[in-house]
Design goal:
The structure is a homodimer. Chain A has two domains: about 5-120 and about 300-330, Quinone Oxidoreductase, Chain A, domain 1 (Alpha-Beta Complex); about 130-275, 3-Layer(aba) Sandwich (Rossmann fold). In chain A, the strands form three sheets. In chain A, strands 3, 4, 5, 6, 7, 14 and 15 form a seven-stranded mixed beta sheet that branches. In chain A, strands 10-9-8-11-12-13 form a six-stranded parallel beta sheet, sandwiched between helices. In chain A, strands 1-2 form a two-stranded antiparallel sheet. In chain A, helix 2 packs parallel to helix 3 and helix 3 packs across helix 9 (about 285-295). Chain A has helices spanning about 50-55, 120-130, 130-145, 160-170, 180-190, 205-210, 225-230, 260-265, 285-295, 310-320, and strands spanning about 5-10, 25-30, 40-50, 75-85, 95, 105, 115, 150-155, 175-180, 195-200, 215-220, 235-245, 270-275, 305, 325-330. The first copy, chain A, is about 30% helix and about 25% strand. Chain A has about 325 residues and is α/β, with parallel strands linked by helices. The first copy, chain A, is globular and about 65 Å long. The interface between A and B is medium-sized, with 32 and 32 residues. Strand 13 of chain A pairs antiparallel with strand 13 (about 270-275) of chain B, so a sheet runs across the interface.
Chain lengths: ~325, ~325
């Protein structure tokens, strides 16, 4: 027995909309013992992604739903405190599916990735890890922005959107963000270097007309819903839509289909979904590119840090109430 | 002056739904004189495609709308009867944008393509020309069916769908059609060699469940609407949707968006529109492959021939009333 206490937030009831009192519970359990081939990892930061909310619904996405009684699933970063796995030594730093808890078991599999011990752990979660990889693969593999093209990114002030837009700028494109409210729009332009940002609470259609002229070459979509439809309505010949998320529907389960998908026909366009799991073997490529850009100042991030495991649910809800800018994370312990 | 009379069907009023009396008019005009660099082509067959109906609406697709007073646009095949163009001699056979008329001017451009003089002109329109190229490029470039995969094709008894399904069979896939009514379903299976065909007038969802099991790897979509949505709901991991048409909306202008596009995310799927214009430089590749398959009996077609220019509008309407099987064409003169 390690003798360690593991505080966990477990699912008690499937939430409707935001996660409310009684949907989850903070409990204490003994930390698990690592078996042969396993390591015990102490969580330092939990990354808060909209996907975490989708896993609480009883629907199979690219990962199965969290079952009642199980720990809320989330990506995170931590340090190895005990190891019976050849891949890890005590003191190693790894990204893993930490979940909303203080300790987790890791193995030598695609969910757990060792990172340099001296890495900036906030930057790792915000830029070099799966968030950055999502922006990187979605923009470079599907979006493929060319110099002078117009790229639109929704949830532009969010963790993934802010990076996706900057990656398109590095590729030489003109980048127009879409975000909710003047503060986020200001952050997209002044902090993340977007050429313009449309406040969707004002008028997306007018904003697109003003800032994108006739045509959108690339759309990196985090939101789905009417915004996806509006952007598809202005797709350029050969336009590419990288589908990264449907945050507009995560609380309601509803997602009206985009009637303007017919522009994919008229313009020979492409709309493609992706997730980073399928690109695990290329994470080194993304890590190297993202770290280089961040080191030389071409890629900036903002971390919104909540302090302490008990605030993890608030941090998650903040993604849906519009409170958060940049990468949301929870510092644990 | 050639002294030839050119009978034409011109657009008088934009139709609502089917094309009715008064929407078009059959008129006679002197056949045009070919100018320098032009040839006069006598139409032998007009190909009847659903796209012809879309060009009568006042909406810009990949070609501009037909204006009031202009000839109804359609692809066709004909013979050169006078030439001031180095690319053509009298007696040459060409595919061109004939339109609903007896004579048309052709140039040495991407709309007019010479074909072997001894070609079977019905087979040219039905298989080797733009209809076959549409099926070929959509299925091989976007669908990319692999042996053992499940491929679904809508409008399976139609000109393009019947070929697309056979091309997928040649690639070694299992092919399930969707068509309207028992006669078309029988044609898809017995004549075109589909493994099964779902009658969408009965129950698409149940049919997909029965014939596709859990997953659709490739969908060649000619219809859009609720059928597209139903198929997207069963998309396999890495599934590909080739968007070829939205025939369900061509008469009404309405096309509910496919809410199940979110499966493109969950399954890392792809949905891509295309048209043959952008692949004009590869028509030889398609022609060669299609002719070889047809010659050795692996690709069959059915031509539904209407006799005489005055029946062209009936032929076009037949695409939407469900009357036509295979490639619809009008024999002229």
């Amino acid at each position: 027995m390690t003798g360690l206490v593991n505080r966990q937030i477990v699912l008690r009831r499937r939430p409707t909309g935001l996660v409310r009192d009684g949907d989850t519970e903070l409990i204490e359990r003994p930390a698990p013992e690592p078996g042969e081939g396993e390591a015990l990892i102490r969580t330092t930061y939990i990354g808060i992604d909209a996907a975490a909310r989708t896993w609480l619904d009883d629907q199979r996405g690219y990962l199965p739903p969290v079952q009642l009684g199980e720990v809320v699933r989330a990506a995170g970063i931590g340090e190895v405190v005990a190891s019976r796995c050849a891949a890890y030594e005590v003191g190693d730093v790894v990204t893993t599916l930490s979940g909303f808890q203080e300790y987790v078991i890791g193995r030598d599999d695609l969910f757990t990735t060792p990172v340099p011990r001296d890495v900036d752990q906030q930057a790792m979660l915000a830029v070099y890890g799966s968030t950055g990889a999502t922006a990187y693969f979605g923009m470079t593999d599907i979006g493929r922005p060319q110099p002078g093209e117009t790229v639109v990114v929704s949830a532009a002030a969010g963790a993934t959107g802010s990076l996706a837009g900057q990656i398109a700028k590095i590729a030489g494109a003109r980048v127009v963000g879409i975000a909710g409210g003047p503060e986020k729009c200001r952050a997209a332009v002044e902090e993340f270097g977007f050429d313009a940002c449309i406040d969707h609470r004002v008028d997306v259609t007018a904003g697109l007309r003003e800032h994108c002229g006739a045509r959108v070459d690339v759309y990196f979509d985090n939101v789905g819903g009417p915004i996806l439809d509006a952007v598809l309505g202005r797709l350029a010949q050969g336009g590419r839509v990288a589908l990264c998320g449907v945050i507009s529907s995560y609380l309601t389960g509803e997602h009206p289909g985009p009637a303007n998908y017919t522009n994919l026909l008229a313009r020979c366009g492409l709309m493609q979904g992706f997730n980073t799991l399928s690109q695990w073997h290329r994470f080194d490529e993304a890590f190297t590119a993202l770290q280089a850009w961040q080191s030389d100042g071409r890629l900036v991030y903002r971390a919104q840090v909540f302090d302490g495991l008990p605030h993890a649910v608030d941090a998650l809800n903040g993604l849906f109430t519009g409170a958060n800018v940049g990468k949301t994370m929870v510092r644990v312990g």
